[in-house]
Write a structure and sequence with these properties.
The protein has 286 residues and is an alpha/beta fold. The protein has two domains: 144 residues, 3-Layer(aba) Sandwich (Rossmann fold), CATH 3.40.50.300; 72 residues. Helix content is 65%, strand content 7%. It has a five-stranded parallel beta sheet with strand order 2-3-4-1-5, sandwiched between helices. The termini are far apart.
């Protein structure tokens, strides 16, 4: 019986040794897995940072391109539009032919644009409302001096909630002289009509007169293309927000995903058709 017990003990000891060896190997594997996971998370963070930067650049580019609708297609007008719609500094447009103001009004037509002047009795209230509710604001017909009340806004010394303010300033003066401190706070942009831009506008007027349906289709197409591109962007943002939540916590994610996929396909098809039609219209305009 004693011998039997010793044999059982030896067997149990061998099993225990094997188990301990297996446990040690498992612990080593776990340590390696944890290391690999940490490295993967660091790599993911690097790629995520790069992705976020690229995504922001793409969104900014889409916004800029969409916002150029309605401008003449000469290089200077396009460059002016890009500068005016950037977020670096608020634009002050030298706009004697009112081309810039017309473009701003058309670009912001669906966003409750507030139009005012520095001399308006409602100016302060309109300014406060635009900051509070994020409505775009156009201050037109300024002279060579600006109201000091604009200083903290032009310097962007206000809360993060107000940083969505879209502010535009225009002057009808053909050759204004602004003080250096004003030039340091705004982007002064010369929207005076160029020869190429004038040719574009005259062509539009000619076609509007002789082939009204073609020009109307071109304008409608430009607006629809801008609207569709913005819709795609909103769908992507909505989907990203949904995907950041748990599927269990938000069962509507699958429904949103299916709806987004269907709508995105429809919108992309419209954008492709719009681009093809745009090329045909451009050929006809020439």
């Amino acid at each position: 019986r004693e011998q039997k017990a010793e044999n059982s003990l030896r067997k149990a000891s061998r099993k225990l040794a094997r188990a301990e060896g297996e446990l040690e190997r498992t612990e080593i594997s776990l340590v390696q897995c944890q290391h690999d996971f940490d490295v993967a998370m660091q790599t993911k963070q690097t790629y995520q940072t790069d992705y976020d930067a690229l995504l922001k650049r793409r969104n900014d580019a889409n916004t800029l391109i969409s916002g150029l609708t309605g401008l003449p297609n000469d290089d200077l007008s396009i460059q002016n539009g890009i500068i005016a719609t950037s977020n670096y500094r608020y634009p002050l447009l030298i706009d004697p032919q009112l081309q810039g103001k017309s473009w701003i009004k058309d670009m912001e037509r669906d966003h409750d644009l507030v139009i005012t002047t520095l001399n308006s009795k409602l100016f302060r209230q309109q300014l406060d409302d635009s900051i509070a509710f994020g409505r775009p604001l156009l201050i037109e017909d300024v002279k060579e001096e600006l109201d000091p009340i604009l200083d903290p806004i032009l310097e962007k010394n206000f809360s993060k909630l107000d940083r969505t303010l879209r502010l535009y300033i225009t002057t009808k003066l053909a050759n204004p002289t602004y003080a250096p401190e004003i030039c340091a706070r705004v982007s002064v942009i010369d929207f005076t009509v160029t020869q190429r831009g004038l040719e574009h506008q005259l062509l539009s007027l000619l076609i509007a007169n002789e082939r009204n349906e073609l020009e109307r289709e071109r304008v409608t197409l430009a607006r629809e293309t801008t609207k569709n591109k913005r819709m795609l962007k909103e769908l992507e943002d909505n989907l990203l927000i949904k995907l950041t939540s748990s599927l269990l916590d938000d069962p509507s994610v699958v429904e949103v995903l299916n709806a987004n996929k269907r709508i995105a396909t429809e919108v992309k098809e419209k954008v492709v058709i719009a681009e093809e039609t745009k090329m045909k219209i451009s050929t006809a305009r020439e």
